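Q: Endoribonuclease YicC-like N-terminal domain-containing protein, please. Structure only.
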Amino acid sequence: MTSSAIASMTGFARVQGGNDIYSWVWEVKSVNGRGLEIRFRGPQGFDSLEPDLRRRLKERLHRGNVNVSLSLRKLSPQAQFRVDEV
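A: Structure for Endoribonuclease YicC-like N-terminal domain-containing protein:
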């Protein structure tokens, strides 16, 4: 697979998916900027995604103000996670 350079700093992307319990939406918005500024907004408890997300974006982007958001929605109020004791 070949990689191409991004020619513009202005853009928008949205992808959604899910499973039986949750639906999710990722959105990325970028606008012109002198340096690279990345902001991540996600549900509580998903902060651990930010370092890898920043690293991956810095590999491909050099300038711009980039906003990344993750939204989760629980589909079934009855669906819950259970952890078995070992």
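A: Brief note, in case it's useful. The chain has a mean pLDDT of 87.
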